[in-house]
Every structure is written in structure tokens, then in C-alpha cells.
Amino acid sequence: MRGNAKLRFAVLLLFATPILVAQSAPPEIVGRWVAQNLSKGGIGSIWEFKRDGTLRMAPGAIVDVPYTLDGDKLIHPPSTTLPSAKPQVMKIRIDGDTLYRSEDAPNAPEEKFVRLKPAKPGDPPIVGTWKASVPKLAPGKGDPALQQAARNTTYTYTRDGMLKLRVPFVFMNGTFNSAARTFVINHNGKLIKGNFRIEEGKLYLTQPDGHTDDVYIRDDFE
């Protein structure tokens, strides 16, 4: 009898193991996504799905700007298309996981940034995701929403020469069910429910009216 009990336990363990592995595997939705179609001002929504089934989303600015490095100079294209426009040049220096940036002018004050996500071995030191140590806030009392956006802002320098500037305004929290493909967001006490699906590497979120989908693309940095 004791031998039969051990055998039954071994069989149960054998069949339970694949189930445990499947449940612990991260769903394909986990990560950060940004709207594929933005407004003329570069405004869209940013969604972050976490492994524990929680999520947060925020409307915000989504801007991709090419960059080049020339010694200690960080160079971006001109901010306008005027004939007199010149490239935007800033001086940088990197000390471990701290980035210092200033205007390319004598005695210009430095901004300090801390690294959030590291680059891979062999990448240039600037590659990775950074956040301002002391964000630039609105003058005086300022608008609380603008101050929050400044604290949320991240700067990701990719290894292929792109700055991905992300400015989430105000985050809203929620949860999602990867099996049912549903999500719920708490918007100022009002629960907004919807569905999602992933097709060909893109995320489709169903609007509350159930008739239209918003399309999102992955925005993770590895």
C-alpha cells in the first residue's frame, strides 16, 4: 500500500509539472507598448503590462529623435525646418550609471540623469534608459500635471542611434487577465473595461464602445 501511494504521488507530480511551468510563463503582452498612430503633436497613450497581472497606462508625448555622438558632443537634428536652423548640440559626460548633460556653452549648468536600464556589454555608454535626477519642473508653483509629467519622463538612447523620449502625463492603474484577454482601468474611480489581442507582434486594444481598436507597438528596451 505504501508503495502504491508513492507511485500515485509520482504520477500526480509528473502531470502537474507542465501545468506549473505553463502558468509561470510570462504572457506575450507583458512589457511596454505605445500607440502606433499619434496626434500631430506626437501625443498617444503608453501602456505597461506587468508579470503580476497589473497594468498602468497614461496619455503622453511619444517622440523619436535620431542622435549622433562626436566625442563629448550629443547632436540632434534641428528642431525646425527653417533655412537658418542648426543642429542641437549638447555636451555630455558619463560616470558609471550617471549621465551629465549641458548646453554647448561655457559654464552652462549640467543636468544629471540616472540609469534605469543598462545596455548590453559592448554598447556605447550612453545606450540605455535614463531619468532626470532632478526633473525640470514648471516655474513657480507650476501645474501639478506638468510636474508629474516631468517626473515620469524617460530618455532611451538605442544602439541604432535613436532617442526615444517618453513623457507619460498621469498614470492610471488597472489589471488584466491574459487568459480571458480582458483589462480593467481605474479612471478617477470609474472602471473602464476592454479587450485585447495580439496579432503579428502588435497589440490591439478594444475601445469601451466595442467597435474600434487602437493599435500599439512594442516599446521595450533590451
Number of domains: 2
- Give the distance, in angstroms, between the N- and C-terminal Cα atoms: 54 Å
* Structural category: mainly beta
Mean pLDDT score, rounded?
A: 83
Strand content: over 45%
Gyration radius from CA atoms, angstroms: 23 Å
Number of strands: 16
The profile of the biggest β sheet is: 8 strands, antiparallel, barrel
Q: What report would you give on this structure?
A:
This protein is mainly beta. It folds into two domains: 27-61 and 170-218, Lipocalin (Beta Barrel); 62-167. 14% of the residues lie in helices and 46% in strands. It has an eight-stranded antiparallel barrel. The N and C termini lie far apart (54 Å).
Would you summarize the structure shown here?
Helices cover 14% and strands 46% of the residues. It is mainly β and 222 residues long.
List the main descriptive attributes of the protein structure presented here:
single chain; mainly beta; Lipocalin; 16 strands; elongated; disordered N terminus
List the helices and strands and how they pair.
Blueprint: H1 2-24, E1 31-35, E2 43-49, E3 54-66, E4 68-70, E5 73-76, E6 88-95, E7 98-103, E8 111-117, E9 128-132, H2 144-152, E10 154-157, E11 162-168, E12 172-177, E13 182-187, E14 190-199, E15 202-206, E16 213-218
